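The material for today's practical consists of a large collection of protein records. Backbone structure tokens are a discrete shorthand for how the chain folds in space. An example says more than a description, so a record of this kind follows:
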Amino acid sequence: MRRLILTLSVAAALVAVAQPAEAQFKYGLQGALLTGLEDVNTLDGTIGIGPRVAFQPPLLPIGVVGQGVYYFPDCGGADCSYLTYSLAGQLRLPLPMVNPYVIGGWQWRRASAGGNSATENGAMLGIGVQLNLAVSVFLEGTMEFNDAPAANIDADNAIVIKGGVLLGG
């Protein structure tokens, strides 16, 4: 009889604290500014916009972030495009409303100009802060460690400043 009561107690406790998996995902939109080391003080760079998905378990300070950004480069009237996407791990400081975090992972770039295109990849590392109200708002800065693709984009070891809104969770 004791085993039955213990088993039912554990099952009841697990059901009480369990959350559905969809409550752990956050979806959102982000804006980005891609700049080089020499231009970070003037915030001169290329702007972009893209989606962001975050898996953030409620009781753990770790998470996974997938994101993409399509940039609008100025190629002097030539036809060009530039986009990045990444998959990263996120380690948050679990405070009630404000969550500072570090983020690091792998990032891919694709650039094209004048019919030529190239893809590069490399590590990315950064810091950020997320404010959790009715929606989550974040601001982060990352450093991308890879060579610039063969296009008219000056993005060697780029600094990217991102901000956006996440819904869900």
User: Anything to note?
Assistant: The radius of gyration is 20 Å. Helices lie at 2-17. Strands lie at 25-35, 46-55, 62-71, 80-92, 98-113, 116-132, 136-145, 159-167. The CA atoms of residues 27 and 139 lie 15 Å apart.
